[in-house]
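Quick start: load a record and inspect it. Here is alcohol dehydrogenase:
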Amino acid sequence: MKAVIVPDVKAAWEVRERPVPEPGPGEVLVRVHACGICGTDLWMAHGVLSFREFPLLMGHEGVGEVVALGAGVTERKVGDRVGLPMMQKRCGACDFCREEHPNSFVTAGNCASPTLTGVNVDGALAEYAVADVGGTVLLPDGISYEDAAPTVCAGYTTWAGIRRAGARPGARVAVVGVGGIGHFAIQFAKAAGYHVIAVTRPGKHALARELGAADVVTDGAALKEIGGADVVLHTSSSHAAAIDAMTGLRPWGKLVLMGLAEDEMILPALPLTTHSYQVIGSAHNGLEYLAEALDIVARGQVKPMVELFPLERVNDAYQRAAAGEVRFKAVVTF
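Running the structure step on this input writes:
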């Protein structure tokens, strides 16, 4: 099979020949049709995050068709269309796993030996991938592979954060940043019936309105001026932007952190206490939220913005994604 290999830190991504993997007991073999490039992939390719030695075969936004079953698999059948999210399998034996938590990023971060697709085991940036059957999710009818791929991580992250916020019907929800996660957040929040406010730079104001934002502002002061927000969804690569947006957070409001950023985060202690704010960390909160997100996309209520790259142009996809030039998700097709 052809597979995308990252030979070293910040090296060009290459297409190489690899043996087709065989599914072991409890695993499925998936013929990959599309795989998105996530910001986490870029951090691993650049050495910011390190889970195993180079060369790497990454990809945790893979979608495709089950073509073979390992021994004992009954939950899937050949021909099933599935997604391959990052959290594939917990070890099941450590102290954390004995508490029987569902697959989520919390499990990924606390299990003694998790299996993480495209992170500590080979991923879906290849023509074929194997995964534990419990680390797959069925794709609904009506969703294309190209739309499903970014939903498996970026869309999943976004919808799980909105659900975790638990805002009342009709609440005012501010989305900080309009990018790979933010463009999902505006659409998902609108689909959920919230009054959506985008907080972004002037160059993206028109796009934010096209995506469904009822109001668009540039900072927290402007957010406060138009009535504030009950929930602030942080989707950008800057914690400072989230802290600034808290200026417009209403009493008893919630700040939901779902964007990855490297800058330090210093919370405003007095407003946090006097306004009884909640700061919530959120990523992948359980596969039921991924299933919900896929259904919403399949119904046409959310449309991922993707740029498609055939396998032969995967290094172009990497370079454009790393430079922030993709609007908004790079998806490699096989």
